Amino acid sequence: MEPTEILAAEAARGKPPEILRLIGDTPLLEITRLDTGPCQLFVKLENQNPTGSIKDRVALAMIEDAEREGRLTPGGTIIEATAGNTGLGLALIAGAKGYRIILVIPDKMSQEKISHVRALGAEVRIVRSDVTRGHPEYYQDYAARLAEEIPGAFYVNQFGNPANPLAHERSTGPEIWEQMRHDVDAVVVGVGSGGTITGLGRFFSRVRPRRGIEMILADPEGSILVNYIKTGNLGEAGSWAVEGIGEDFIPDIADLSKVTDAFSIPDAESFAVARELLRKEGILGGSSTGTLVAAALRYCRKQTRKKRVVTFICDTGNKYLSKMYNDFWMAEQGFAERQSYGDLRDLITHRHEEGHVVSVGPNDTLLTAYKRMRNADVSQVPVVDERGRALGILDESDLLVKVHSDASRFKDPVQSAMTDKLETLPPTAQISDVIGIFDRGRVAIVMDGAKFLGLITRTDLLSYLRLRMPK
Q: Does a structural domain hold residue 273?
């Protein structure tokens, strides 16, 4: 399409929302309460973009480039394989411009991201995250296949789209250069599609070619990129929980030739640093932010002279409240240190003595019990009196039997519907005893004498066993 045709088509759809003008020009601030060694560490707040991530920049650039070249026309369908953030940016812009959009997302992505893109109007296809290129459910292959099957589809392909690094070369790089007053020694970047590290590398090598700015790679442990940088070999990819960065291949647009150092960061360190960043600096960043800041801190602390270092708050931590900012998820995944007892107490995810058990009292109403089950996304709650004694358990079946013929019974007390024949175990019991209770269709209640310690569900036991799986 000619530029005039694009403008006419946009005019027909109405003026795009003003929110698109807020993409880019994000703030940059200094980290002051973390140990940065002899260096100054600055972070660029890409979480301030409209959908909360750096990917808004490239989403806008890739769509506008496709429009200029006629690869995306009015009524077309945008298709992309994405870890979530690029999809959010694309969904925002697709909605603003009137396009249909289908996103192919690996199943390890946070529910917040998936809910967000759906709320923006995107259609979502969830595929497996444990497969590699060539498998029919590998997210990029799946997206490419969809684009071939749907008439008028445009496959964005951020991993091979030259407009991706160009967005950072033309916007992100110049912004950092001006905000840092032309005084930058190193930039710490991750690689998802490779656009950021490529675009910034091009820009900084152009503005300071003689005394170059160091490009530092931050990579999740399990990704192949650090090994490739240090040995030239691709190696075999592992798995990692951090979202949005790390790869099992070298993206087509990724130029890693300007990388001068690279750090492999374990998931546990990434999550711990992100949580520390929130506590000490008040910055709510996502999981990849934890990886970048962890690598930046490692780099800064090993320096012998002062350097001015920049990294990114890649996206907002609001997208990870159910994961790395959730204490129970952290414990279930083995990323949080908990007191170990060497008995059944180690299987209890929600410990009563720590105030983590969702419970009801015998005189609470069934409506109160129902609301607590829904808010906590659980199917049963223990009934505990004011002295901490477990009196019974109420599950969804008990509730349904009580109220199905008369909804007014939601006002009845919990003790009128609870099961008081409890299957209890002392902390010293064996896992085989827990399995026996499960076989009888019950939940295991752990008691230390008259003291209620917590419940063991099938999910709790599975999480416990998975963490002890040989690596």
A: yes
